[in-house]
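F.,

This is the one I mentioned.
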């Protein structure tokens, strides 16, 4: 069973909890005392969050509880790793805090599940050097220099091929556009 929790600062967003997570939140004495579910709101980064300011003699103290982080720390087993671990939403929906949707991953795994790129070629793993395009991919500290190509699309295809070899089908594969056809010149 799923539970949709309305968020305090938005009309159209709801946090999603599965039965186990919902019962854990409802059964937690501290969360019940602070009316956690009634005071969830959408953080500027999109996550369901609880925040409050507590006035003390030393000044204000802020309590911040991210719903997904609280659930993951309680229920999701962290894999052994000598690297820092991050929490990933498997389906990409940061409002879906169902336990099956949460997992701990390394930064490289987190980036691999992301399908956006910010480089000037428009393709992940592709850079433009003069009039050619270079395809590169890194995995476990190894640089795979895939070569130079005439078009960004060809370089992106080479990147995708090597990426599938190493990681399988992931969200980080390039969506290769058909190369632009040269415009026909009018003859007078």
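My design for it:
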């Amino acid at each position: 069973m799923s539970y949709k929790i309305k968020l305090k600062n938005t009309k159209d967003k709801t946090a999603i909890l599965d039965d186990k997570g919902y019962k854990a939140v409802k059964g937690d004495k501290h969360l019940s005392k602070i009316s956690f579910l009634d005071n969830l709101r959408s953080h500027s980064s999109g996550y369901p969050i609880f925040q409050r300011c507590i006035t003390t003699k030393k000044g204000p103290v802020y309590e911040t509880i991210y719903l997904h982080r609280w659930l993951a720390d309680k229920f999701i087993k962290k894999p052994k790793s000598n690297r820092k671990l991050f929490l990933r939403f498997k389906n990409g929906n940061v409002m879906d805090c169902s336990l099956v949707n949460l997992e701990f991953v390394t930064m490289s795994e987190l980036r691999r599940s992301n399908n956006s790129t910010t480089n000037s070629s428009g393709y992940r793993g592709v850079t433009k050097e003069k009039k050619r395009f270079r395809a590169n991919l890194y995995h476990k500290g190894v640089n795979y220099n895939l070569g130079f190509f005439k078009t960004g699309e060809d370089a992106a295809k080479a990147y995708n091929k090597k990426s599938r070899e190493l990681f399988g089908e992931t969200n980080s594969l390039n969506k290769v556009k058909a190369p632009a056809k040269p415009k026909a010149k009018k003859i007078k």
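Helices lie at 19-27, 29-33, 67-75, 107-112, 152-167.

Talk soon.
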